[in-house]
Amino acid sequence: MRKPRYAVAAMAAAAALTLSACGGGDEASDDTGSEAASDSIRIGIKFDQPGLGFDEGGEYSGFDVDVAKYVAAELGYEEDQIEFVEAPSANRENLLSTGEVDMIFATYSITDERKETVDFAGPYFVAGQDLLVRADDEEITGPEALTGKNLCSVAGSTSAARINEEFGADANLVEQPGYAECVSLMGGGQIDAVTTDDIILAGLASQEANAGNFKVVGNPFSEENYGVGLPKGSDMCEDINAAIVQMIDDGAWEEAIMANTEGADYSYNDELNPPEPDACA
User: How many CA atoms lie within 13 A of 109 on its CB side?
Assistant: First the structure.
């Protein structure tokens, strides 16, 4: 396993200083000690998305977490050198611009607008908006089948309204503080479907209390390219892309998907996944 880039630089600096002390100082560079050793890496994740990024009393789990750990290992960091930082959607750009995190794995869709302020590696997964329904529901097969149905999403999200606007459905929209509340309502029969990205739905459905009770319809109707958020001007993109390709090639990517969606009756879109990372800017 490679040592962290900054640690390697520091070792080289120490060697140069040793040579200088032994009489070779005339050739030593003046800036050999300018880069300090870094013995940890700060990674932003969600803390409240089961199956993707979830904080279980200081233990972190989910697909985003597994990809983050794999990438960090390829960059030379042991697990105990990773500091996970909560990265809510509204705070992601700020966390990167202020240097509070080194990178973000948090269902962070790559968009042209976001590229104006942050850089991206990846994508490492392509999600799509989909529907979660009860396991025995054979009637709801896509957004067009939601007319007259009760459809739940999170307050402030546009995903539920989009179904009515773009697909001509006439669903009754129900807003809740979080997707877990939507799933609880569906379990009690108050709603008929939940909508957001398919892998987020699969993560919810795979929780022990929900396993076997719900299914992802499997008819995604958008594309969301999940990327690794990086500070603008970062030099880590190519190394991260190489790590993503390695994770896919050695089977760890597939294992992580399966482990974090077990019990959800979910299959990812194999026409779009696994993705090929975009060229770094």
Answer: 15
| β-strand pairing of 41-45 with 118-127 | unpaired
- Do residues 215 and 133 make contact, with C-beta atoms less than 8 angstroms apart? yes
pLDDT band at 270 (very low <50, low <70, confident <90, very high): very high
Q: What is the DSSP letter of 115?
A: H
Give the pTM: 0.81
Q: In this structure, what token pair is assigned to residue 10? A: 């520091």
| Per-residue pLDDT at 264 | 87
Average pLDDT over residues 251-260: 97
C-alpha to C-alpha distance for 39 and 217, rounded to whole angstroms: 44
Query: Across the beta sheet with 41-45, what order do the strands follow?
Result: 82-86, 41-45, 103-104, 224-231, 118-127
Q: Taken in order 256, 261, 263, 267, is the CA torsion positive or negative?
A: negative
CA 256 distance to own-chain centroid: 12
